[in-house]
Amino acid sequence: MDRRRIQKLLELRQKALDTKVSELGAARQAVETAIAAVTRAASALERAADERKQMNRAGADWQTWVTTQDWMSLKAREFSAAQQQKSHCERLAERALAAVHKARSEALRIEALLARVDSEARQKELRKERRAEDEFQANQSAREEISR
After folding, report:
1. Which of 35, 59, 109, 117 lies in the 20 to 30 Å Cα band around 124?
2. How much is the pTM?
3. 35: Cβ contacts below 8 Å, ≥ 6 apart
4. CA distances (Å), 106 to each of 11, 44, 74, 96, in order?
5. CA distance 98 to 91
């Protein structure tokens, strides 16, 4: 393969890696947002439970108790939904991390190929130089023999 083509392929792999890294950053940000939502939902659920306990101690009527129970159930569902969203975001972040690892390994593989092509080109050039030096020495020796 030609060095320019390999270099172009490396550039494409680097761009893909950059894209995957930015996607990982976005996924991690989503996880942080989901964690904050879980924390808020947990606080709201605790407040609802505390209010229900206070109403039970105060001896509230059944309509107020039902309303409070419904409100607490709503907060429990919101908490559950926030936890599910957090789990989903964590799975997406794990997938994004795996994609970054894969893209990085592909870029490294292309870098290794490029280094090998460069090394082979240097070796070929060195062989040409040695061959030219050997021919020059042989011609030099032949001239010395002829001039004797």
Report:
1. 109
2. 0.73
3. 86
4. 11, 46, 48, 15
5. 11
Residue with tokens 């092509």: 117
Digit-coded pLDDT (tens) for 8-23 = 999 999 999 999 999 9
- Answer yes or no: are the C-beta atoms of 79 and 42 closer than 8 Å: yes
Q: Evaluate if residue 1 carries a pLDDT over 70.
A: no
How confident is the model over 47-100, as pLDDT tens digits? 988 988 888 888 878 888 888 889 899 999 999 999 999 999 999 999 999 999
HEC profile of the chain:
CCHHHHHHHHHHHHHHHHHHHHHHHHHHHHHHHHHHHHHHHHHHHHHHHHHHHHHHHHCCCHHHHHHHHHHHHHHHHHHHHHHHHHHHHHHHHHHHHHHHHHHHHHHHHHHHHHHHHHHHHHHHHHHHHHHHHHHHHHHHHHHHHHHC
Between CA 57 and CA 6 the distance in angstroms is: 76
Distance CA 112, CA 66 (A): 69
